[in-house]
Amino acid sequence: MRSRVIPSRIPTIVNTTCINHNTTKTQCPPLFLSGNKGYTNNAIANWSLGIKTCNKSSDSQGLFQISWTPKRNLSSKAFTSNSAGTPPTRRDTNLQHSLHDRTLKQKLRRRLPTVGVVTGFHNDTDHVEAMGLLGYDFLWADAEHSSAGPESVSKLILAAERRGMPTLVRIGYGYQNIIGHSQKYLVAGAQGIILPQCESAQDVQKIVDAVKFPPVGKRGLAGERWNAWCLGEGGTLADRVNESNQNSIVAVVIESCNGIDALDEILKVKELDFIFVAPTDLSADLGVHGQIRHPSVIQKVEEAGEKIRQAGISAGMLALTPQDYSYWRDRGYNVMSTVAMNMFVDGAQAMMKSIVKYELQGMKRLKQMALKVIASQLTKEETGFLGETFSSIDLNKDGVLSVEELDIAIASGTFSGTLQEKLISLRDDLMITGEKTLAWKDFLADTMMDKKLDFLHEHKIRQAFNHLKKANKSNISISDLNEVFGSEKIAKELLMDADSDGDGEISYEEFRNVLVSDKDGIDAK
């Protein structure tokens, strides 16, 4: 690492200890640096000398050991130091491009855990800077599944560079001039290119030609952002070309069975840094569109991952949930890509569910109580299908369903349609509420709640209504609710949410509307 003078605009705390006199700078006369008039708190020259002298006495010079402590708490990855013990320095993104930093390249080559974030929000740069500050290893700027072009992606690259995060651009598929198209993004400052729908070694070579300069590839050379237009630090243009060829990233996406079948040839391309296996497109190729956790998809992904790892190349995979991340990391995938849109939607959805749940607590309690009453009256024939479903999901046969068991059931591909959607909803509810398990009665009540499963027959709703009210009354009163739920506060909440006409009681029609309504605090979209 080249020694640098920290600019005066960066405040530093200077600590000095006189080795000979065992004193601090406040006890020794002013420290004089060779070739300088003295030192200041804001700018110090001649870093590389390391040891300085003091002038406490004329017959013996003391030696000061200088250490430097930044006043700002900057992240550890922003600092480097050399073997000579020179002070740590922070990469100045105004002077140096990500290509000067080998961190991403080394992590890929060593197959270390590497986390990127995919974004198609090409008109917003704030979220890119936030991802950099959160510690993501790279930005995956998506020009395939978005309307982003070189102009908008260049702004994302600048935002990522500002926070020390390199950018890889996934270009669109089918361009006749791959080199010319990729060049637009490389000129804007991308550290590498990701080619989608790769199915041959020839496809990979096209990206190598686009990303690397001669003699490795065929990329055109000029003064551009990546080489700082040959200004500032970085050496000659030849030095910068060599550095770019060493540190630039070549990646491809395998999205079909043809691509997996061609892996043996693809893996022979020397300059390939990582291969991303795309489960969504693979599911389409296998005829199970969108079912990324279908057994046939998982089998193909695991097969591809094993072959990639055996070749010593980094393997990439999609991580939409923390469970996805741990599942594929356990199977050797090391380049994990999250998706900005999913994180935004998941966070927004979780927030809305929590809001609805809080605001409709009374209605939810009333509905759950009514459904449990109905569930207790169902015959074995009526519960047979759901009972078999519950038993098949309850792998350890402890009578309750855990988040892990629901995850396995969802990923198995055994269930589809309405029931699959319900299982996902139940799993998400457990994660949001922090509850560990789901009991049989709650599972039955929640699955009955879906009108598409056809359990809410009119006579059963009437039976539940009669169960909650006093026999000599036509409506459910607040005293009835207080007796059932054992809390005057809860009774008032229930009445407030269900009593739509405000007469102080819950009629059969109001009760029925609560049961058939989607506004239960769980299924909010």
From TrEMBL:
Coiled coil: none
Protein name: EF-hand domain-containing protein
Record-stated family: Belongs to the HpcH/HpaI aldolase family.
Annotated keywords: Calcium, Lyase, Metal-binding, Repeat
InterPro entries to which the protein is assigned, alphabetical: Aldolase/citrate-lyase_domain, EF-hand-dom_pair, EF_Hand_1_Ca_BS, EF_hand_dom, HpcH-HpaI_aldolase, Pyrv/PenolPyrv_kinase-like_dom, Pyrv_kinase-like_dom_sf
GO CC annotation: cytoplasm
One Gene Ontology term of the molecular function aspect: aldehyde-lyase activity
Domain EF-hand: 381-416, 486-521
Lineage, broadest ranks: Eukaryota, Sar, Stramenopiles, Ochrophyta, Bacillariophyta
Parts of the chain that traverse the membrane: none
PROSITE patterns: EF_HAND_1, EF_HAND_2
Pfam family, one: EF-hand_5
